[in-house]
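Q: Putative nitrogenase reductase, please. Structure only.
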Amino acid sequence: GKGGIGKSTVALNLAQALSRLGEGVAVIGCSPKSSLWDFWGLSDKKTLLDLERYGGVSPANINESTLVKEDGIIYAESGGPEPGVGCGGRGLQVALTRLSENSDHVPGLKDVAYYIYDVIGDVVCGGFAMP
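A: Structure for Putative nitrogenase reductase:
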């Protein structure tokens, strides 16, 4: 759906409901604009692609781009490529790969049963349509 119709609200409410049932949940923000961090008022928090751009994602810095709230829900934001450089969809693939590679270093991530992807509302390049 297009922007502003409630995709993030549905994603976050679903995460809350699953968490209250005792399930391990992670919400992955897939917006190049980092809207998940904006929702939490953390606009200065780094994204996975920020880390990748400036030295790479590693066990030492992975938690700079993740957040574990008091309810146990884990949040991560992929971020996007620099404007005019690269493809947001390809960036998403890189971000998810780096998160997976470093999952041992994010508290609780290995126990997650449900991953909820908060996706953008339009396909701006072919990378978002990859299988």
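A: Brief note, in case it's useful. The CA atoms of residues 52 and 95 lie 8 Å apart.
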